[in-house]
Amino acid sequence: MAETVRIDRSWVSRFERGKAEGISVDTVARILAVVGFDLSLRAYPSDPEVRDGAQVALVEAFGALLPGVIQRGLEVPFPSLGDRRAWDMRLRLGDEAWGVEAETHIHDIQATLRKLKLKARDGDVDGVILLVRDGRHHRSLLRRHASLVRIEFPVESRVALECLAAGRFPAGNAIVSLHPQAAVDP
User: Fold this and answer.
1) Phi and psi of 24, rounded to 5°?
2) Number of domains the chain contains
3) DSSP single-letter state for residue 135
4) Segment 122-141 mean pLDDT
């Protein structure tokens, strides 16, 4: 591997043990490519300023549709110390808790589903609602990948909203498609 990437073998040994310092992203990407991996990075904002007003509007519109019997919390952190993930909204009804993940523009449906499976596993919830901004892009995306999406989210938007309006959770994970202005004028 060191020869292929054209770096010193002793440095590779230090890298494998987590002892290498001063490594560039380019070098890490080349090393990973040699062993069959792609490098993926994700940045998280370090300040408390809200950066996605569209997502906030979507979550607020959804919350306005819920009856008072369903308790809600916003940006609810995961229970594990050091885990920086949070539910955009967490719903509670009796002993049952559901996580709500709001997406204003899904680029990669497989990555989104994978992320939600991990959040469901680690997020101390009984079910998940994927809240998407209604629009041509999401309708087309969900239609094209319906068989894949329905495996993890079998409950349709209309059914989920009817259940929630009646003060109960749906019978399974659900996708709710909503336009943020839906809750403004009943």
Assistant:
1) -90, 155
2) 2
3) S
4) 93
